[in-house]
Amino acid sequence: MEKEILQAIRELSAGMKSLHHKVDSLEKRMGGLETRIESLETRIDSLETRIESLETRMDSLEKRIDSLEKRMDERFDAIEASLEILVRENHENKLEILRLKRAK
């Protein structure tokens, strides 16, 4: 009976050693996974920062575009007003020329 108990203890001890090695191996793998997760989190943070920067830049560009569109509209309005004045003056000049020709 004592031999059987000693054999069972040896088997239990061998099983415990094997289990201990498996636990050590799993802890190492977990450490590797944690390192990879931390690396991915760092990359995600970096990407989020880049996205925020790009969104800020896009907002700035949209404001500049709006400003340029407003300035273009103002300039087109000014050009249109100038053309109307020129057309009216041209018409008035033609009428004056016709009047002068008739007066001769």
Primary descriptors:
single chain; 104 residues; mainly alpha; 1 helix; 98% helix; rod-shaped
Spans where pLDDT lies below 50 across 5 or more residues: none
Number of helices: 1
Largest sheet: none
How would you spell out the order of helices and strands?
A: H
Shape: rod-shaped
Terminal residue distance: 150 Å
Structure description:
The longest helix has 102 residues, at 2-103. The protein has one helix at residues 2-103. The protein has one helix and no strands. It is rod-shaped, with a radius of gyration of 44 Å. The mean pLDDT is 95. Helix content is 98%, strand content 0%. It is mainly α and 104 residues long.
Summarize the structure.
The protein has 104 residues and is mainly alpha-helical. Helix content is 98%, strand content 0%.
Please specify the SSE layout and strand pairing.
Elements: H1 2-103
